[in-house]
Amino acid sequence: MLKTKIIKPTTSAYEYPLLIKQILLSGPRYEPQQEIVYRDLFRYTYCELYERICRLANALTKAGVKPGDTVAVLEWDSHRYLECMFAIPMIGAIIHTVNIRLSPEQILYTMNHADDKLVLVHSDFVPLMAQIKDKLNTVEGYWLLTDNPSDDLPNSLSFQGEYEALLAESATTYDFPDFDENSVATTFYTTGTTGNPKGVYFTHRQIVLHTLVISLSLGSLAGQPLMNSDDIYMPITPMFHVHAWGVPYAATMMGAKQVYPGRYEPDLLIKLQQKEKVSFSHCVPTIVNMLLNSEAAKQADLSGWRILIGGSALNKGLAVAAREKGVILTGAYGLSETCPLLSVAYLNEKLRDLSEDEQIDFRIKTGIPAPLVDLAIIDEEGNHLAQDGLQVGEIVCRAPWLTQGYLKEEKGSEELWRSGWLHTGDVATIDTLGFIQITDRIKDVIKTGGEWISSLTLENLISQHPGVSEVAVIGVPHPEWGERPCALVVLKDKQIQDKDIQVHLQQFVTQGKIHKWAIPEVIEFVDSIPKTSVGKIDKKKIRAKKAH
Question: Which residues form the AMP-dependent synthetase/ligase domain (predicted)?
Fold first, then answer.
């Protein structure tokens, strides 16, 4: 590195640490009477939010939680979860947002691996915790989270108390301390193709910087106005998954109205959107498909609802179907390891002059790197490739909020950060406008007869058939060609046959978008497609079923 001149501050200057508490202080300043809403059960103001976070901090401290301790949370998306996302790290502890959709064995592994000390558990997950409690190595106590605080505490766990009762007994003020901004604030576990889930962790500094940039990316750029302080925000991404993509931190900093839906029920989500006038959400494509096909959506006017899409590729068929209901979908990209924001689709001044049909082709792309993100594509030897829209390589990145490694996994951390770049495992092109176009995961590329076929491209094209509701494409072994594409299709119109899909794809062969050998010979019509714990299409599970 270059040698530069560094001027040390005077001894009286305050060295301002970037801590999560600084995010919290802004919302009540801007909109003290703005609301936090939980389902149709509970609502309160930002002033009350701050008081409740102070109460929670006092209750945690009284329970013996110290700086560096880890507190596990098993909960649906709620106001309580929001309070935990602030109070736990603000006292110097670490919040472990437990993936409630993992198997009991995986949850047990993650909680032991994270050294959880205190567990805050929703009543729905008490049976799960009772099942594994005797195998938990470090847990010292449990709190109950419930929508019915008047109910008696269940006796299956040694509860220290019920959440609301513990808050009611605690003071409404707390002197949140300063400490090192590089202290770990959050941890959660991401599942891979093999082995145990890997622990990802983020510091206060990383979360504050991510919050600032995601606020800028969602609200300040003219080409993608998605959320500002006047918007009404409802997450449809689990809060255990990368802090609901970090948006609750940004919404709180802005003082925006927030609506938390609890357990995801399609008709309730639509009801809340209509009643509370929700204008911004985020989720994976399968959730949008579920919402659009719900009974409540058939009668609802969804116009003005903007939804950020991540987690897996946004196909054109879904974007068009959403637009017909008045919903505008915008693509974004990130990983659990990247906190997660790396890029968002951005329409520059020239692209905004295009028709809506033409704009969709850019909105569904993975987007343009966010501020402070260095992003490139490389070949198998690690050479950087041209951003010409043609050369295909693995995405590597750098940004100040990327996880520095996997918890207690030195080898995996070195592999993640080899050559000083975080390796995503995603294959993409970058065009001259800066748009990233994911072509596949490295493990999902279909290799046939020496050629690579993008499963995501095929899914996008098949989705544009009017009779298709959902689609997944994988490669299956072939004695002559190595692999051939196989498509699993959920239909809207049960009269559709495989030849109809093949004829539909032939037009894209004629247009030069795919080769003729990319058309699947095997097209299976199914009632549903397997999903992961966070709602992504589970190609690992599909491939496993095909292997048997």
Answer: 32-407
